[in-house]
Amino acid sequence: DAKTTQPPSMDCAEGRAANLPCNHSTISGNEYVYWYRQIHSQGPQYIIHGLKNNETNEMASLIITEDRKSSTLILPHATLRDTAVYYCIVRGITSYDKVIFGPGTSLSVIP
Amino acid sequence: ETGVTQTPRHLVMGMTNKKSLKCEQHLGHNAMYWYKQSAKKPLELMFVYNFKEQTENNSVPSRFSPECPNSSHLFLHLHTLQPEDSALYLCASSQDRSQTPGYTFGSGTRLTVV
Predict the structure, then answer these.
(1) How many CB pairs under 8 A join A and B?
(2) Which of B18, B32, B95, B104 is the most buried (most CB within 10 A)?
(3) Are B42 and B58 in contact (CB under 8 A)?
(4) What is the mean pLDDT of the segment spanning B83-111?
(5) How far is A46 from chain B (nearest CA, A)?
(6) What is the C-alpha separation between B75 and B92, in angstroms, rounded?
(7) Interatomic CA distance for residues A91 and B15, integer angstroms
(8) pLDDT over 80 (residue B46)
């Protein structure tokens, strides 16, 4: 089973910030939080990851709570091309750490 | 292109056919993975290879047979498939003990079994 829970779907108005929550209450100390997204029928695309500090890159920001039991992915100015399924995943960094995908959050950006 | 190339992009095969899916990465990664994604379902992990050795077989039926001849190539051999095996098959790779970018996925092979 996936180690994370996410809302099944969300809507966001174009140009507004999209805030996607994720719960990972059983995360262990050596596990990172990763976010991927999958645009229809394509392979998942890496967005961002973090351990305990907040992170920002050109695509998004990641806010991790102090107890690390939940996180939020923020797309600051959502566009129609951001419509996708967003997956929150926790994993260690060895290649022996399995990555299990949950159903993710289907984000619809509305004009 | 993500650095992980899958061929073919689309495949239609009969239940008595034998076909193979190919995945290739030149990212220097040491681990490769096969995932299956059926319609409106999450990705399901099928096989994991680390340093060319299979380290995970997630109870996959024997009609799916993986092969990893070297750390850059991964195959999925298919034979006597069923219509319910129709799905998007995704290959991914990763580098041991590297954080970024985690997994790199290919664009997938859309398989239809008729």
Answers:
(1) 69
(2) B32
(3) no
(4) 90
(5) 6
(6) 12
(7) 37
(8) yes
